[in-house]
Amino acid sequence: MKTSDFDYYLPEELIAQTPLQKRDTSRLLHLDRVTGEVEHKHFFDLPDYLREGDCLVLNDSRVLPARLIGRRETGGVIEVVLLKDKGNNVWECLTRPGKKTKPGTKLIFGEGELTALVTDSAEGGNKLLRFEYEGIFLEVLEQLGKMPLPPYIKIELQDQERYQTVYSREVGSAAAPTAGLHFTQELLDIIAK
User: Fold this and answer.
1) Taking the CA atoms of the chain, what radius of gyration do you get in angstroms?
2) Which of 30, 94, 144, 166 is the most exposed place for a label (fewest CB within 10 A)?
């Protein structure tokens, strides 16, 4: 099997650039595994397919504003996405352009309230960055960071809370559990009943 077996054409005009005002009005495709029948529904129809005793697992992680735009000390714009907290202010990160973030490179974010030193390369081309800042790291991120949107989303979100699920609690994700973005509290209440 090849990954190219899963390639398909998706017209750009069909890729939503902003979330729907009412989350659960998004489309839902239902495939009956027995008959092969396909139905075009809405996410608010989900309870029709659940039965008493079914288990619905929700990922309650909150998305960090983990995308940082900064510059190298020597000049040049750099983009960093925080992936994994390694402890002691060290994070595994995606960097772009990656070739410009060799170990020893110093990065500056904002007006210098956050800096980072590239300490090493990690598996898969990721980088290890040691951050320096005053205060609480999450508060600095709230000030300087942006939501790490998928590359096919070209419009910045005005309300970053729209990229969180309604049940998010535990800070730590680099990306939202996408299917979870369609739930509303009302829909969850119906499902619970």
Assistant:
1) 20
2) 30
